[in-house]
Amino acid sequence: MDRRNQLIIVRGAGDIASGTIYRLHRCGYPVLALEAPVPTAIRRQAAFSEAVYDGTSQVEDVGGVCISRFAEAAAVWEQGAVPVLVDPDCQVLKEVRPWALVDAILAKKNLGTSREMADKTIALGPGFTAGKDVDLVIETQRGHNLGRIIGNGQASPNTGTPGMIAGYGKERVIHSPATGILLGRVRIGDRVEKGQAMAVIVTGQGEVPVKASLTGIVRGLIKEGIPVRKGLKIADIDPREEEFENCFTISDKARCIAGSVLEGLLYLEAKEAPAAGRDGR
After folding, report:
1. DSSP-derived secondary structure for the chain
2. Do both 104 and 83 map to the same domain?
3. Tell me: the pLDDT tens digits for 65-95?
4. Which domain holds residue 179?
5. Rounded to two decimals, what is the model's pTM?
6. What per-residue confidence (pLDDT) applies to 170?
7. Are 84 and 175 in a shared domain?
């Protein structure tokens, strides 16, 4: 089936959003990713948002290219890549109406997405009501219901506690101990020991160290040199040291959610198909 005229806009291009962007791109949809001017993704090796900083990004075998206006998107699609546009407020909707829009910001609240933005609308995680704010909501909380497609109601509320990996939950995620500029001391993929300095936060009063909360592999670390606020999620450690390659690929959670987004779009498409077309007559 020719999907080239079925433009999908995805709000957000962090690692979870990138799993969805990657899946939809591979299925033949033209996907436009919208990002903030200063992305704060920590799993940067698996996020199209890095194109905002570097001009290009790479998520497995698909490239991302930062563009300055919508008119540049077609050339990027011709290259087989994903265009990334800095447009947190969806101003691009003044130029084009997408076939579908996916809110994958994961802000735990609605930052302005509505059903009027596209013919089909899907949102990831809490903060949205399916049937009101958007057509469908996808559950993002790890567990039995991860990836569940919700047609009426909301996803589970944010618990503030990361999912368990090898027996570790909140310990594997590190938040900034101060407000300032982050300077890294390690790289994604490096092994760290518990208590080791992973980075420092440069403040007006000096440097505040960011120490590893456990021993393992640095799975994510926010971009060096950007301003961070106290309490912001800035790093992720995987205690499974044998899982080095996971630092550079789409996560199981992101793939599960991506599959549900694709299913949801096909479900909405089938719902609007004429009844006569369904039985072949």
Report:
1. ---TT--EEEE--SHHHHHHHHHHHHTT--EEEEE-SS---S-GGG-GGGHHHHSEEEETTEEEEEESSGGGHHHHHHTT-EEEEE-TT-GGGGT---SEEEE----SS-SS--GGGSSEEEEESSS--BTTTBSEEE--SSSTTTT-EESSB-PPPP-S-PPPBTTBSGGGEEE-SSSEEEEESS-TT-EE-TT-EEEEEEETTEEEEEE-SSSEEEEEEPPTT-EE-TT-EEEEEES-TT-GGGGGS--HHHHHHHHHHHHHHHHHHHHHS-HHHHTT-
2. yes
3. 999 999 999 999 999 999 999 999 999 999 9
4. 170-239
5. 0.92
6. 77
7. no
